[in-house]
Design the sequence.
């Protein structure tokens, strides 16, 4: 089935440095969601992007959806130790009965060194 | 308002044993999901439900069964556990269909080990 590829798998940054994770698909994505999972925790919804070229910001986080809707990125400016965790992108697709299914990327594990 | 809760939090089974994982949500959500998370593989959908009394297969349904007898509860059963089912299991719920209702809320997870 369709896969959502996410890179890098791991990223270590010094506190204050920027961080970016990328999500790519070989086919057009209907939309993209981003989740954050703290170590030992559960995924928490961050944002959803729907429109081609869409850019949304949440404080130091910037989310982009590619013009062709085949890729997305999450950029964190000036990382803090509270940013530690695994960031997942996920495509939301229709399934039977109008339910939505999420297909997750494999995630990028971010470590922030103080 | 507890959100999504899961029981138990941890469990160790022997191969061939059975067990049921319980998920409960108090947000009156229509849709509920069961995922498993393995290292380096993200979350994979096992089964899901679009409403009381309905269930459907996800990406990796083999070896699992589910039931949704009440809107607020979604049960995941393992009839004969295998070591390959060692994983962290997450339940999630979603309000319903529509562009503004697509956020999924996850429970805290159940860590299952099958020996």
Sequence:
């Amino acid at each position: 089935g369709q896969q959502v590829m996410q890179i890098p798998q791991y990223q270590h940054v010094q506190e204050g440095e920027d961080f970016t994770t990328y999500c790519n698909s070989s086919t057009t994505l209907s939309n993209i969601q981003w989740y954050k999972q703290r170590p030992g925790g559960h995924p928490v919804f961050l944002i959803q992007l729907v429109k081609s070229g869409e850019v949304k910001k949440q404080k130091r986080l910037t989310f982009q959806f590619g013009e062709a809707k085949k890729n997305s990125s999450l950029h964190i400016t000036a990382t803090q130790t509270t940013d530690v965790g695994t960031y997942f992108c996920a495509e939301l697709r229709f399934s039977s009965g109008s339910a939505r299914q999420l297909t997750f990327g494999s995630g990028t594990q971010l470590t922030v060194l103080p | 308002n507890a959100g999504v809760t899961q029981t138990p939090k941890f469990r160790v089974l022997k191969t061939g044993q059975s067990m049921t994982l319980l998920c409960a949500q108090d947000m009156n959500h229509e849709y509920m999901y069961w995922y498993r998370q393995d290292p380096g593989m993200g979350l994979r959908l096992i089964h899901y439900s679009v409403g009381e009394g309905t269930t459907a297969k996800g990406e990796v349904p083999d070896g699992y069964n589910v039931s949704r007898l009440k809107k607020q509860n979604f049960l995941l059963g393992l009839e004969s556990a295998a070591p390959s089912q060692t994983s962290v299991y997450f339940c999630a719920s979603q309000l319903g269909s529509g562009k503004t209702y697509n956020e999924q809320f996850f429970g805290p997870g159940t860590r299952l080990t099958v020996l």
Q: What stands out?
A: Chain A touches chain B at residues 1, 6, 9, 31, 33, 41-45, 48, 50, 88, 90, 92, 95-107 (CB under 8 Å). The first strand of chain A starts at residue 5 and ends at 7. Residues 7 and 22 of chain A are 5 Å apart (CA to CA).
